[in-house]
Amino acid sequence: xxxxxxxxxxxxxxxFYLFLHLMVLSSATAxxxxxxxxxxxxxxxxxxxxxxxxxxxxxxxxxxxxxxxLFDLGLGVRRQAALFWMVMVLxxxxxxxxxxxxxPFLFGGGRAx
Amino acid sequence: MDQALGAAxxxxxxxNVQRYDPEVDAKPRYDRFAVPYxxxxxxxxxxxxxxxxxxxxxxxxxxxxxxxxGSCAMLVNGWYRLACKTQVKDLRSKxxxxxxxxHYPVIKDLVVDMSGFFAKYRAVQPYLVGGDGQRAVEPASxxxxxxxxxxxxxxxxxxxxxxxxxxxxxxxxxxxxxxxSSCPSFWTNPDYLGPAAxxxxxxxxxxxxxxxxxxxxxxxxxDGIYRCHTIFNCTAACPKEIPITEALQSLKRMASxxxxxxxxxxxxxxxx
Lengths: 113, 272
Ligand code: SF4
Ligand code: FES
Fold this sequence. Notes:
The complex is a heterodimer.
Chain A: H1 2-27, H2 32-42, H3 45-72, H4 80-107
Helix pairs in contact in A: 1-3, 3-4
Chain B: H1 3-6, E1 12-19, E2 29-36, H2 43-53, E3 73-76, E4 79-82, E5 95-99, E6 106-108, E7 111-112, H3 115-123, H4 161-165, H5 178-181, H6 184-188, H7 194-205, H8 212-219, H9 233-237, H10 244-259, H11 267-271
Parallel strand pairs in B: 1-5
Antiparallel strand pairs in B: 1-2, 3-4, 3-5, 6-7
Helix pairs in contact in B: 3-7, 7-8, 7-10
The site of iron/sulfur cluster has 16 residues of chain B, from helix 5 and helix 7.
């Protein structure tokens, strides 16, 4: 049940993000100055942290999506719990790698991009 | 369960039983009963002890006392269990909370209204339908085979042991209702046929003597098989440990194969 619940929550988060994304993008099209300002803000540690959350949702939703597709193909249905933990571990590993990469920009005062 | 239950001195367990009579009570309450523990005691025995010694008005269903009739499914310490199959010792707690199966209307105390559950069971036509014999093995011929006129309705639908084994798991369901009670798809859509009825549908869909052309439409409508989102609660809840989700996934593939015109006739290939 947790796999399914997280899938729903991350799915809703991604839909919400999509609209947010379009809003931010369109606000950046108001001219060169607006574009620069938007880029400046998006490079701030706050937005980088939000990007990591986004990555979490994408990773989980994508990997668990593969898990569910396997079930629809009739594969691994009896190993669903093990597959769920595989999804969790893979999600955590990739996320940790991403945190390692963004760390200097989050806390080191460095500027991304 | 620690020394208290093993030792000879005053082993007592406490049953916290949800009591509710919708015709009288505004909301459910919990009654706490001290029950003398005996080695080997089941939750059902504890409840019957309460019924006999403390409160004869406690309402519950049971019949076989051996996990065969399916009438005593309830929530014990928050999980779906058959009261008769659950040893108090295995709960590893002296506090035992007993509630009726959730998401069915309560009639009284631990007795819930299963009429909707059984209406869905009937809706999937839980018996062989059609019988065009298309999937049936050719009747035996040669010496020793039954004469055709002995075989009603004019033709014998034989089945190989392997074909029977393909849906063996699905035949042991005792219709206790735990799986459907545990299913979030059922919580959000009470019209959903639910895992128990669909498992029964699969039991016949996978049976080589049944007619898939008549069977699949019963199971694949708007409130049917595609409302299963592989949440696995049913499989976890089933006290008979039937791999329900696996069966429902097989059923989905049989149904979609027919929808896509791919036949899906063979019970064996469709079931695995
Ligand atoms: S499949 Fe299992 S949980 Fe569902 S009704 Fe049958 S025995 Fe009970
Ligand atoms: S009393 Fe029959 S299953 Fe428990």
